[in-house]
Design brief:
216 residues, ARM-type_fold, 61% helix, 10 helices, Neurofibromin, mainly alpha, globular
């Protein structure tokens, strides 16, 4: 899945680079070419957690083949779980990837000021960030923190409520890490007179007392 997503990103950027209608300015085309080169670097293969993948296409369709661990009951195939992939897409890696995609999105928005790409992306990320989903919520929080241009006190309070619940159970360190990273990114967006600033200071002090290496 990660290899396919990386390949899709490469293909979309390449399509924009070769697109003749609509036509883009030289500045935007330069941004696209630089982004295409950047996403093709080994650094981004590592960020996507696919540094050992040689071909995204091969990896994408490998699941359609019969695995040696599969067994059959009559005409039905029963898939047995394979060993977990050692490479992971970490939250800091997702943050770097999101910033790189945001750069392209912002450059495209300058070309077409009326387009709603960024606002739509922000809305989708926000909805997932505030909705409980162990698989998607931490990643959505990272994206929401990276692409947000404005934030309200109410939104930060909602994030703090999620953090409180996560700390009460303390069974999902990744969610806590994502919340801290998200709050770090959106705190500068708060109005200067917001009372949330003082609360976030004590949140940071409290996090230091958790003795969890991944949160430092």
């Amino acid at each position: 899945m990660r290899a396919s997503t990386h390949g899709l990103v490469i293909n979309v950027i390449h399509s924009l680079c070769t697109c003749s209608n609509p036509s883009f300015s030289e500045e935007f085309q330069k941004t696209l070419r630089l982004s295409l080169d950047e996403f093709s670097l080994p650094k981004f293969y590592l960020l996507f957690g696919i540094s050992k993948v040689k071909s995204a296409a091969v990896t994408a369709f490998r699941s359609s083949c019969r695995h040696p661990t599969d067994r059959w009951l009559g005409n039905e195939r029963v898939c047995q779980q394979l060993p977990a992939d050692r490479e992971r897409l970490s939250l800091p890696s997702l943050e770097v990837i999101t910033d790189a995609l945001l750069e392209i999105m912002e450059a495209g928005s300058r070309e077409y000021p009326d387009c709603q790409w960024l606002s739509t992306w922000n809305s989708l990320a926000k909805n997932l960030a505030f909705c409980y989903n162990p698989a998607l919520q931490p990643r959505a929080l990272i994206v929401f923190g990276c692409i947000s241009k404005t934030v309200t006190d109410q939104e930060v309070k909602q994030l703090l409520r999620i953090l409180v619940k996560a700390l009460e159970s303390f069974n999902d360190v990744m969610l806590i890490e994502a919340l801290i990273m998200c709050l770090t990114r959106i705190q500068p967006l708060l109005r200067s007179e917001s009372p949330i600033h003082k609360a976030l200071f004590w949140v940071a002090v409290s996090v230091l007392q958790l003795d969890e290496i991944s949160l430092y």
